[in-house]
Amino acid sequence: MSSSETPVRVARTPTIAVTGAASGVGALLVERLTGTSDVRQVVALDERRGENTGARWHTLDIRDPAIAERLRGDGDPVDVVVHLALDLDLESDPAARTAYNVRGTQTVLTAAAAAGVRRVVLCTSAMVYGALEDNDVPLAEDAELRATAEATGVGDLLEIERLARRAPRAHPGLNVTVVRPAVLVGAGMDTALTRYFESPRLLVVAGSRPCWQFCHVEDLVSALEYAALERAEGDLAVGCEGWLEQEEVEELTGIRRMELPSSVALGAASRLHRLGLTPSPAGDLAYTMYPWVVSGSRLHAAGWRPRWTNEEALAELLEEVAGRHTVAGRRLGRTEATAAAGAAGATVALLGTAALVRRVRRRRGL
Prior knowledge:
By secondary structure, the protein is α/β, with parallel strands linked by helices. Helix content is 37%, strand content 15%. The protein has twelve helices and 15 strands. Helix 1 packs across helix 6 and helix 3 packs parallel to helix 4. The longest helix has 21 residues, at 94-114. The radius of gyration is 21 Å and the shape is globular. Mean pLDDT is 87; it is low at 1-10 and 333-360.
């Protein structure tokens, strides 16, 4: 059956397991699933117990092969697993983060197959399509994944995508669906892209063509529910309808731009990250330069619609980051933020960062 045809419906009310269930998107999904009669039972898996009392909790490290026994259950085996136990924290050690994300996904897929689970839902990001000047606007779900591993966490997400493609071949009968949200917005969301809006000026690379599309976590949760209940088939992109041009973003936010040549912006970002002064590698800048807007056509064909518009999601993002000050992905302390607050704030911050780079280079004899 093609992804555009009538979606498959499950034969019985499913038992659904959620990893990373104690916090973030996982906790929101558990809350949603325990509140619907479309689900028989919710099995919540995390290293600590969450607050939801309607789920059956198991505390364990998601990399522990014992998860297979938890999925087999006691007379009520799990039908679907939604794997949300990922570490995408900007401040995490990159090697440890990759080890956790990749090993965790491998373990979940292997355990699911061993336990007779019929579907695993993974969550990556629309960033895996890559931000490229020649991208279609919008991108179809089956567009080639052209991202590189140069942006924060994207290498992990690309490896998860590879695992998703290989799993059905290694484990016949296991269906794997990947959900790819646009820029995530909502309480607790802290990424290189949300930090972009914490800056005193919006950095725009000369000659670039940014397009902004957001995805509120509430819409992501409802899309994950669609995937878990098998209301939509194939890999699914999710986001607000349409997109905003950079000029619209500047008008809505009231934050003026600071335009720099690409060689200056990319060179500075690369040096700052190499010296350990910012968490964001230069690759993150591409996602503020070129479009990576998704159509969401498969979810739309299944009857799903986002509740949030791009304008509403951006307003929510601005409320979430109010009072924070970031330059080049680096959060500023109170003194630095005060220095960056005036009409020349971005220039002051940029010059201050450049001076910091020079001091570090002198200390290290570079």
